[in-house]
C-alpha cells in the first residue's frame, strides 16, 4: 500500500479527520477527537501506528515481523506496521478498521449514531 492509498483509506471512515499536532511531518488521524492512527506518510521506511486489542496485538506481532509494539506509544494497545509489502493489504485494512472501531466504541452513543457506526445498529 502506498502512502496516498493509506491516507484515502483512513479518511474514508465516517468522521475521520487528519490533523498535525506534532508538526507537518506526522499525520494524526482522529475520530471524535480521539487518535486512531498516526503516520509519517513521507518517511522511509513507511509506517503506520494503529490502536489494537492487546491480545490481538501480541498475536499479530508473533505472526508478522513487520508489526511491532507501537513506537512511542503504549505497546500494550498500539502496533506499528512497517509497510514493506510483507503485511497483506487486506490485513492492514482490517487493522485500520479495528483501530477505528476501538475508538468509536468508546465514544458517547450520540456520537456513534452521528457517525452511523455499525456497532449501534440492532
TrEMBL record:
Q: Tell me the superkingdom of the source.
A: Bacteria
Xref: SUPFAM superfamilies = YjbR-like
List, alphabetically, the Gene3D superfamilies matched: 3.90.1150.30
What molecular function does GO assign, one term? DNA binding
What single Pfam family name could you report for this chain, choosing any that match?
YjbR
* Keyword set, alphabetical order: DNA-binding
PANTHER family from the UniProt entry = CYTOPLASMIC PROTEIN, CYTOPLASMIC PROTEIN-RELATED
- Put simply, this protein is called MmcQ/YjbR family DNA-binding protein
Which organism does this record belong to?
Kitasatospora nipponensis
Q: What is the lineage of its organism?
A: Bacteria, Bacillati, Actinomycetota, Actinomycetes, Kitasatosporales
Amino acid at each position: 500500500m502506498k502512502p496516498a492509498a493509506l491516507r484515502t483509506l483512513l479518511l474514508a471512515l465516517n468522521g475521520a479527520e487528519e490533523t498535525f499536532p506534532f508538526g507537518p511531518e506526522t499525520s494524526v488521524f482522529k475520530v471524535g477527537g480521539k487518535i486512531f492512527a498516526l503516520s509519517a506518510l513521507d518517511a522511509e521506511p513507511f509506517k503506520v501506528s494503529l490502536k489494537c486489542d492487546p491480545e490481538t496485538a501480541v498475536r499479530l506481532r508473533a505472526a508478522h515481523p513487520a508489526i511491532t509494539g507501537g513506537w512511542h506509544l503504549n505497546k500494550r494497545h498500539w502496533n506499528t506496521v512497517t509497510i514493506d509489502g510483507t503485511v497483506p493489504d487486506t490485513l492492514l485494512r482490517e487493522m485500520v478498521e479495528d483501530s477505528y472501531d476501538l475508538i468509536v466504541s468508546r465514544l458517547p452513543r450520540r456520537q456513534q449514531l452521528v457517525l452511523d457506526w455499525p456497532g449501534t445498529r440492532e
